[in-house]
Amino acid sequence: MQRQGIGTSMLRALINEYSPEYLTTYTRNPAVIKMIQRESSELYPLVEEEELRDMAAAMAHATYTDAVYHEDRYGNEGLFIGEDPASKSLVPGKATLMQQFPGLVSSRNALILAARVRKEKK
Asked: Distance (Å, rounded) from C-alpha 113 to C-alpha 41?
């Protein structure tokens, strides 16, 4: 079911119905980051923005190191047994998500995102 745009469609429907100013989530997946980035004007931790960083840090089980993570969110095997999407990059040919955010080296951890939702429609 992945890569069929279902997540993007659901996110856009949520934004259209509820008009949130902000979005937050936990992830290890560059595709989730890209999906939220398309709907936002700013996305922490890709942009070091104090209000968004503080919002991420206020999420349940948040720990700040080089970015804000939920440490030990997943079991010993991690969420993705086998191929971990954090071993992929946000931009082809660039650093992997694990390299960009060292807290993701442990498959038990998730990066916490906080985004300011884009006001204008694309």
From this structure: 13
- Compute the distance between CA of residue 30 and CA of residue 12 in angstroms, rounded to an integer: 18
Q: Are 28 and 79 in contact (CB under 8 A)?
A: yes
Query: In the chain, what are the domain boundaries?
Result: 6-117
Residue 122 pLDDT: 53
pLDDT of 2 > 70? The answer is: no
b/e map 78-107, b = 16+ CB within 10 Å: bbeeeebbbeeeeeeeeebbbebbebbebb
**Widest CA span of the chain, in angstroms?**
42
